[in-house]
Write a structure and sequence with these properties.
This protein is an alpha+beta fold. It has one domain. The chain has two helices and seven strands, in the order ββββαβββα. It is globular, with a radius of gyration of 14 Å. 13% of the residues are buried.
Amino acid sequence: MSRSSAGHRYSIGAMLLDLEDPTRIIGLTKSAILSPSEPYEFNGIVPNVVFPAGAVALPENDEIRVYYGCADTSIGLASGCLSELLALCKTEMN
């Protein structure tokens, strides 16, 4: 969460957990990977909010797909490079 001239803004970060011990964090982004930027993310029941609803990793395509809620009125889909996200988690954790 951060503050803007419109009030609080809720964004999405990423966390990488150990497969054997999911209580152990091995990677974490310090900055947001997705923040409200579109009208349907700014305007709605809960404005200025994006929140993750699920993610699908497609390692064969080096892709990550994140399904997310937008201002409690819409569902969005963002995609990105899986290896870049993993590297970002590991880099920003240190």
